[in-house]
């Protein structure tokens, strides 16, 4: 038999009941004693003091010892359940929750991401907490976990979903206009269903033999296939993209081609991509010529050719938290049918009319404060980890919205 795992709910609930119970007993006891004394010693019943006792050791010991023990009991009980909240079971599933104004996105270790937190029923899940912008709070009332999500700080919670179903996730820190809309759900599903869901991602090009190689050699631990940041640059859209690299200490721009890819795999420190640490192990002698061929082929076709889904991106990057698709006004203007229209914007403090074309859209995404749409607050965040391909996909998506 597996040892029963104490869940966060099981750790917190008894402490809560204990403290609530103690408070109730004290409240009722003190109120009853007070009422009793008021009646019993009312002036009409006892006009003169009835007793002249001026000390009772017994009473003093009791009223010192009892509250002390009670409070120490609360501390001990509370502290040990706090430790349960902080000690993550070693076999916990790892997920990262990324909070931004005003949405949550959940990243799984295989690179999959989702706006809903899917978890297997009955298994512990550790959620690492990250914020893209301001202070948020990850709050799941059903599992009694609540933790601040602070930009630049590592934090985590863990929980076990005991039964299949949906559980609410809220943001517990006021983080701006649409704070109250920063809601997501945990979908707890049976373990087999969860595994199937998790694997679904790899649907694109799952048949490609290079993927197995990328997995086998741990490339996907450092490189994502979906555009997300890991230790190394994403493989999404890698073929033909322009990259700044450092070769022998000198910075220059290259276009990703066969020769560059081969060198990057065999001799990664020859050209080190800007803003990344030179930590990639060399695969010379580990991968055969044939295998490297396969991987490069894969980059050329699947990873490079895979079209980015602008709609999915707009959701993942949180754009849809502020921009509607149906014409309704949100924190920002709706994306519906804006392409080709004219908008009044304020540029350098001066109002002007702008035509919504590709250049305008691109600028709006990369430098939101350059031209601020009239009647809207200048609160759109700069998404600094968008790749050029992602920006084009977003522009394309907005362009096609009828
Ligand atoms: C320990 C983490 C790690 C592993 C494992 C790893 N890489 Fe890398 N890789 C990096 C980092 C960091 C960079 C960027 C710095 C550099 O260029 O050395 C990089 C750069 C690259 C580049 C150049 C990317 C660009 O945008 O120009 C390619 C191609 C690449 N890796 C392929 C692979 C392949 C194929 C494997 C598996 C056989 C692999 N990597 C395994 C960390 C890793
Ligand atoms: C925090 C809310 C917020 C988020 C998140 C956000 N925006 Fe905006 N966006 C705004 C606001 C407010 C405006 C209008 C003021 C301005 O132009 O800066 C705006 C303006 C725009 C415009 C110009 C629209 C027009 O009608 O002229 C585009 C295009 C745009 N955003 C795209 C995006 C994309 C793409 C994303 C996701 C990467 C995004 N926004 C994320 C708030 C947001
Ligand atoms: Cu928030």
UniProtKB/TrEMBL annotation:
It is a multi-pass membrane protein. Belongs to the cytochrome c oxidase subunit 2 family. This is Cytochrome c oxidase subunit 2. The keyword Glycoprotein does not apply. Its cofactor is Cu cation. It catalyses: 4 Fe(II)-[cytochrome c] + O2 + 8 H(+)(in) = 4 Fe(III)-[cytochrome c] + 2 H2O + 4 H(+)(out). PROSITE patterns: COX2 (PS00078), COX2_CUA (PS50857), COX2_TM (PS50999), CYTC (PS51007). The chain crosses the membrane at residues 15-37, 57-79. Residues 1-89 form the Cytochrome oxidase subunit II transmembrane region profile domain. It is found in: Cell membrane; Membrane. Binds a copper A center. One of its GO terms (biological process) is ATP synthesis coupled electron transport. Residues 90-200 form the Cytochrome oxidase subunit II copper A binding domain. Its EC number is 7.1.1.9. Its main location: membrane. Subunits I and II form the functional core of the enzyme complex. Electrons originating in cytochrome c are transferred via heme a and Cu(A) to the binuclear center formed by heme a3 and Cu(B). SUPFAM superfamilies: Cupredoxins, Cytochrome c, Cytochrome c oxidase subunit II-like, transmembrane region. It comes from the Bacteria. The lineage of its organism: Bacteria, Pseudomonadati, Thermodesulfobacteriota, Desulfuromonadia, Geobacterales. Residues 200-303, 305-402 form the Cytochrome c domain. InterPro entries: CcO_II, CcO_II-like_C, Copper_CuA, Cupredoxin, Cyt_c-like_dom, Cyt_c-like_dom_sf, Cyt_c_oxidase_su2, Cyt_c_oxidase_su2_TM_dom. GO terms for molecular function: copper ion binding; cytochrome-c oxidase activity; heme binding; oxidoreductase activity.
């Amino acid at each position: 038999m597996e040892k029963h795992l104490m869940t966060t709910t099981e750790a917190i609930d008894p402490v809560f009941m204990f403290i609530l119970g103690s408070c109730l007993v004290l409240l009722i006891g003190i109120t009853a004693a007070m009422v009793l004394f008021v009646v019993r010693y009312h002036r009409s019943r006892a006009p003169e003091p009835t007793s002249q006792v001026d000390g009772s050791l017994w009473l003093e010991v009791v009223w010192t010892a009892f509250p002390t023990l009670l409070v120490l009991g609360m501390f001990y009980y509370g502290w040990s359940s706090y430790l349960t909240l902080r000690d993550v079971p070693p076999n916990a599933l790892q997920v990262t929750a990324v909070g931004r104004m005003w949405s949550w996105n959940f990243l799984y270790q295989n690179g999959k991401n989702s706006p809903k937190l899917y978890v297997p029923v009955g298994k512990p899940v550790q959620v690492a907490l990250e914020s893209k912008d301001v202070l948020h709070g990850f709050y799941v009332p059903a599992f009694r976990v609540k933790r601040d999500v602070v930009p630049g700080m590592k934090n985590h919670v863990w929980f076990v979903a005991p039964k299949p179903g949906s559980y609410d996730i809220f943001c517990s820190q006021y983080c701006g206009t649409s704070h109250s809309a920063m809601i997501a759900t945990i979908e707890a599903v049976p373990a087999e269903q969860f595994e199937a869901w998790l694997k679904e991602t790899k649907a694109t090009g799952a048949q490609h033999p290079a993927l197995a190689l990328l997995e086998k050699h741990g490339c996907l631990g450092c490189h994502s296939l979906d555009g997300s940041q890991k230790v190394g640059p994403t493989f999404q859209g890698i073929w033909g993209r322009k990259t700044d690299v450092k070769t022998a200490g000198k910075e220059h721009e290259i276009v990703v081609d066969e020769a560059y890819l081969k060198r990057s795999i065999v001799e990664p420190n020859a050209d080190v991509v800007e803003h990344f640490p030179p930590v990639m192990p060399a695969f010379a002698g580990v991968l055969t010529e044939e295998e490297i061929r396969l991987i490069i082929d894969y980059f050329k076709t699947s990873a490079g050719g895979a079209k980015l889904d602008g709609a999915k991106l707009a959701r993942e990057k949180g754009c849809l938290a502020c921009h509607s698709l149906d014409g309704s006004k949100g924190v920002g203007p709706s994306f519906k049918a804006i392409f080709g229209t004219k908008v009044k914007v304020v540029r350098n403090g001066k109002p002007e009319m702008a035509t919504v074309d590709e250049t305008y859209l691109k600028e709006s995404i990369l430098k939101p404060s350059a031209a601020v749409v009239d009647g809207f607050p200048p609160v759109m965040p700069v998404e600094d980890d968008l790749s050029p391909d992602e920006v084009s996909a977003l522009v394309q998506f907005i362009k096609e919205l009828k």
